[in-house]
Structures are given as C-alpha cells and as structure tokens.
Amino acid sequence: MTNDPRGNSIISNAILPNGQLGLSKSFRTGGFGGYLFNQRNRSGEQDALGTQNALIVNDDVLFGVNAGTNSVSIFLINRNQPTELTFVSSIPSGGHFPVALAFSRKLQMLCVVNGGEKNGVQCYSFLRDKSGGPYLVPLPHVSRSLGLTLTTPPLAYPSVSDLIFTPDSSQLLVAVKENINTGSRGFILSFHVEQGQIGNPVRNQPYGSVSPFGMIIVPGTGITSDPILVYADNRGGGFGIAKLSGTGVLQASVTTIIPGQIDTCWTVFSPRSGHLFTTDTTANVVTESALDVNSLTAHIVNQYSIHGAPLDAVVASLRNEDVLYILTPGLPGVHVMSLAVPGHAQLVQQYSPARETLEFPLNTGAQGIAIYLIH
Q1: How far, CA to CA in Å, does 227 sit from each of 102, 167, 194, 249, 277?
Q2: Is the pTM of this model over 0.90?
Q3: Most exposed of 15, 54, 214, 274 (fewest Cβ within 10 Å)?
Q4: How is the chain split into domains, by residue range?
Q5: Is residue 94 within 8 Å of 155, Cβ to Cβ?
C-alpha cells in the first residue's frame, strides 16, 4: 500500500512460479494516506503509520486503511487474475487515523483500530450480496475507546502499533507503544469477544516490555492450548514471548535481546520451518529466530542485512519453499528472500514497481503488505 497523502493506492504484483515478483498494477483506494509525526514533529520518514497489519487479505477480499481520510477500503480480488482488483467501497473507520486491521473468519467480523485523537476499536459484520460482492455493516455495540490522549496525526510515541484476533477469535489484542515524554511503558490490551460482542479490556504490561509493536500468535497455539504471543519491542531490545490466558491476562513473558538492534518492529512466521522473522528498519536487518513455546525462550539463528528500511513482511508458502516478502520503502519496493533452507535465507530479488504503473511515485511513506495465493 502506497499510503500516499495525495491519494492512497494498492500496488498488486504477480508472484511468479519461482517466487519472484512481476507485473505491477496500481488501484486507488478512494482515500488518502497519512503520516504520523516523529518526536521531532517531522513527518515523511519511513514507517509512516507506525503499525503492522495496515493491509490484510481474507479469502478473495482485500482491506486497507486510509489514515488521512479516516476510512477503510474494500477490494475484490479476481480469483483467475489476482493482480486485478475491483474497488468495492470505502467506509468510515469510526474514529481518527485508522492504522491496523484484523479479521475473524469464525465471526465473519472485521475490526479496525483508530490511532488518532478519537481512538478506539470499531468492528463490522462482513457480508456478501447475492452476486458474492463483499460489504461491511458497522456493529453499533462493538465500538470501544482506548482512552488514550493522542493527536491527529499522532506522535510516534505513544501511538497504536497493531491489532490481531487470537486463533479462536475469543480475544482481540491491541498493542500501544510507550510514551517517551512521560516515561510510561507501552502495553497490550486484550478485549474478550463473545457472541459478536467485545467486553472491557484487560491491560497488560509484559515483564521486560517497553514498547510493544507488531504482534503474532505462534502457529499451532491458541486453539487447544493457550495462545503464545510474540510481539516486537524495539525499545525493549528485541521481541517478547508471552503466554495469554483465557481471561486475557499475559501470565508469563520473556524478552529476547537482539544484539545491535535499533528498531525491531515487525513479526512474521515461516510455516515450514516454524522460525520467526523480525525486521529492523533503522539497522536494516532481518533476524531469524527459533522459538521454544514450552519455556517461552528463543535463540537467534541468523541475521541478514537488507538495505532499504525493511518494514512489514509476509511469508508465502509456495509449492517447494517458503518465500519472505519485505516492504522496503527506502528502495522503494520489496525485497524477496528464499527460505528454502532454514537458517540460510537467500536474497533473490529487489523489486521496484514500474513508475509508469503508478499515479504517484512510490515514496518512503509506503506501509502495509499482504499476499493472496491461488490454491
């Protein structure tokens, strides 16, 4: 997603049989992007939204935030030609500066978290018309304020970082960064979800955590066992691993320090190896780690230098290997890494969309990346 304040767009790229990218096309979202302010009150740098999951895919539907126009856009993906997107609609986000999205297949519910002056979570029923076209209906009783004192646009610290459902859709988690002006640590809110309703949040400050960012549940946990949550924490030195109870309380947490890290903010797992990948936009490093969910510990397997300010990342499980796609707005474009051999990722492509396919040149404010695979 370009997240351009002059006009937000989605750039669709074909995934070729070898995992590399090609054939870029651009589609307007019907809204505008937005930039948060850093602590020097200057906008326009990498990590413009300061979040993970600004762009997500469910089945053949893509959702994206428009932080500059307080809205969420919906696209239908052509199953036969997935690079073809059809703009469906853009609806109000229920607050200011929407930054992250989460979808529950079980509940058929989309939620967005707003990170501006009017901040909070707004959820929608996901429905389809008779022709299969997707649309959203706001749920009037599924709107919860975060109670934060923020501006529109917000500062980088404090600001909202991420929004995810647990695998059984019983909890909705929101990560909030620290307030460096007051010294207040960041936290993770857990909203209990039952029968399509969201309860009051449980506020967690995991041991050793300072400023939680991108979150992900360890694959294989959270259905028949308690979810194991991994969250990036650049101000805390790397990433944290925590066990989440059914009541929304983080019962135990352990921090893994990444040597030399500066801004470790995004998290993604490789399904084949089970390894965690985190990206550091300032150090220009991708770190591969192996986790032990029983002891809540991790060890670093390898680190890779990736120039271009790596941000959001996704993994595609192709026929013969997993492939890691990293948004690098400093390129600007996407770095592609083969994960065929665990612990030995290989950079196979630095891809920049053709300028002639874009209404505005891709700039450093790009944020949000998602994949759609034909099975």
Answers
A1: 16, 8, 17, 11, 19
A2: yes
A3: 274
A4: 9-357
A5: no
